[in-house]
Amino acid sequence: MTQQSDTTADSVGEVYDQFADAGATTAMGGNIHVGYWDDDPGLPLAAATDRLTDLVADRLALRPGRHLLDVGCGIGVPALRIAAAHGVHVTGVTVSQQQVAEAAERAVGAGLGGRVSFRLADATDLPFQDGSFDGAFAIESLLHVTDQTRALKELRRVVQPGGRLAVADLCLREPFTGDDKAVLDGMLRMYEIARINTPDEHRAHLAAAGWELLELTDVGEQVRASYGHAAAAFRGLADSLDPGAAEQMTAAADLMEGVGEHPHTGYVLITAQRS
Question: What is the 3 state secondary structure string of 139-191?
Fold first, then answer.
């Protein structure tokens, strides 16, 4: 396990707001997660990130009218895509008030304000009654949570029996050592990442929270191109920023690329079910 101990919900919200203010979210096409490439290496980053969203949705066994919880919803792009494609309701939560506001505007603009909503909430203390949702998904959000087992227990509490959880997140296939570990630690600090699990640690947290694991697949090679694409977008964005912000953006790009392209960095798609 690789982790830092001082990550909080407030610090995570602040770093996302800072990157959004600098234009990083827009530079990535609105999705704040990796893309998925298979047999089309020329697929643009925005299309590849939508494809990752679709893979997450596919794991939820969706039917029209179901109500999902999106944990770490960003500016709402995945929630709106899933709601529109599958006829479901989605409630998104995030620790960034700025993201809540932008996501709500996007929902209204997409004509989905009646089926998709967003609110400020911490994954470890969700403001919902037991069994409020038919399923839940978390795309690159659990890595920001210091106590992942507690968050997963909260998700299990608010999902009905038989409901599914889909998780997309980074993993470490092997420990980073030496200079590589210094780069990884720098990325954790820059992006306010609390911890990156090994696949076995992902399994352990799910088991401790009472979830039945249905699938855990490492798709690290299919998402690896994301880091280079995103780093290039960040470096291009840096050219338009003031010197201090440009330096931070360039450092963020370098750390992301260094960790993302390392062979020890994997990426898991997880499907679990509430018994």
Answer: ECCHHHCCCHHHHHHHHHHHEEEEEEEEEEEEEECCCCCHHHHHHHHHHHHHC
The answer to whether the beta carbons of residues 237 and 231 sit under 8 Å apart is no
Query: Rounded CA gap, 272 and 263, in Å?
Result: 26
pLDDT band at 30 (very low <50, low <70, confident <90, very high): confident
CB 272 within 8 A of CB 212: yes
* pTM of full prediction above 0.90: yes
> Is residue 172 within 8 Å of 265, Cβ to Cβ?
yes
Kindly report, residue by residue over 94-145, the tens digit of the pLDDT. Answer: 999 999 999 999 999 999 999 999 999 999 999 999 999 999 999 999 999 9
Distances (CA, A) of 186 to 3, 235, 259: 11, 17, 10
pLDDT in tens, 187-198: 999 999 999 999
Instruction: Report the 3 state secondary structure along 26-67.
Output: HHCCCCCCCCCCCCCCCCCHHHHHHHHHHHHHHCCCCCCCCE
Query: Average model confidence (pLDDT) for the chain?
Result: 94
Query: How far, in Å, CA of 52 to CA of 90, rounded?
Result: 17
Distance CA(26)–CA(45), nearest Å, equals 12
Q: Which residues pair with 136 in a beta bridge?
A: 69, 165
